[in-house]
Amino acid sequence: MKKYLVFLIVVSFFSCSDNVNFEELKDSIVYDYSAELSALEEINGAVRNDAEYPESILLYIDPTLIVDTKDNVKRFVEDLNHEEQNVFVELNTDLSYNLIKETIKSYYELQNIDGCIFIGDIPIPKAKFLSYSGNTHTGISTQYYMDLDGQFVFDDSDQIIDHLGERKIEIWVSVIPAYGPHPASLINSYFDKNHAFRTGEIQIEKGFINSLIGAQIEDVATYNYQLEYLEEEIYLDLNARGNLFFGIDNKLENPIDFPTASQSYENEILTNKYDVAKIGAHGNSYSFGSFNEWGSIIIDTEYAATNDVKPMLLIETSCNTAAIDRDVNLASEFLLNPSNNVLTYKGATSPQGGQGVTAFGLPANLIASNLTQGKCLGEALLSPMYKEYIGVFDEYREGFSAQQIVLGDGAIKLQEFLK
Are 113 and 236 members of one domain? Predict the structure, then answer.
C-alpha cells in the first residue's frame, strides 16, 4: 500500500548554474486542501445523528480519495444513520500511526464509538507474531488501532515487536482498501453493491456454506466423522440459521451423497441460497486450496475477480490471503469485484495457526453466536479479541488474533437484523 499523500509540483526551470535551496523551497510550499475540505463538508452535511442511536461508527477517509468518492460516502452515511448508527467522519492529512490512533481514541472517549471503518489507504503498522509452532511471522495488524489502552513497542523500522498490557480490544476496525490502479472506481463500485444489499435490491436467502479442501478421506466412516464435526462442533448458530451445505474433499466418487469442496465453489457459492460462507484452506496472498492429490480445487485471484459469488460475508481461514499491503491479494479481489455480493471479508495478513481458544470456547462458535445475535460484523468477526485467552493460547495470543483483519463494511449486520 502507498503510505503517504504525495503531491507532484512543477515549480520552475533552473539552469545548471542556479543555486537552489530545495529544503527552503519545500518549506515554502502551501498545499491547497480546499477540494478535500469541501468534500468533507458535503459528507458531514448528510449526517443525521441521534443521541438515542445505540451504536456509533467512525469513518476514517483517505484524503487522496475523498473527492472522488464523496457522493458514495454520503450515501453510505445515510445508510448507516438509517440503521440507527451514529456516524462521525475524519479527514487528516497527517497519516502517522500515532496520530491516527490518538484520533480514534479521542472519538472512543468523547463519542463512545463502537468501531471504525478505514476508507482507502490509511496506514496500518506491521507486527511480528510468535506463532504456536514457534515461528515468527510478520503482517499488518489493525490490532494497534483496536486495543486503545494496550502498550505497543516499535522497532526502528516502525514495526511492532511487542504488545503489553491487558491486550483485549476496545473497538473493531474494518478496512475498505485502496486497490489496483483505479482505487476510487473500485471503492465506488463497492459502495454501490453495499447500498443495493442494504436496501433490499440484492436478494440472498439465509444460509451457510462450510467447505473443507484437502481432507484425506477414503472411506465413508471417516467422511461421516468429519461431517459430524462440522455439523455439531463449529459455527453452530450459523448451521441452524437457514440453508446449509458442507463440501468435504474425499475419494468416494459419489458427489451426490458425499459432495466435495469443489462443489461449494463451482456450484453452491454461485447460487442465492447462502449469505455466509466459510472458505479457505492452505494458502498464500493470491490463492488457497490443496496443492496435492487430496484437494479438489484451488481458488485464486482470477476466480475471485471473475466469479459472481453470492454470499455477502466470507469467513476465510487461510494464511496470508488478506495481506492488503501486497499489490495483489485474494481478499481485495473478492471484496472489490463489482459483480459479486461480497461486502465483508475476514482473513489473515500473515501465516496463521488457527485462532486459539478463549475462555468462551472455540472462536468459531463465539463468532457465529455474535453474528446471529445481531452484532455488527466487525464486532462479531473479531469477538475473540475482546475476550481472555486461556492456557497456552494466552502465551501465543498474538499468533492467534493479531493477524486477523476484517475488510469491507464492519458496521453491517446479517440481513435479518437490518431495518
Answer: no
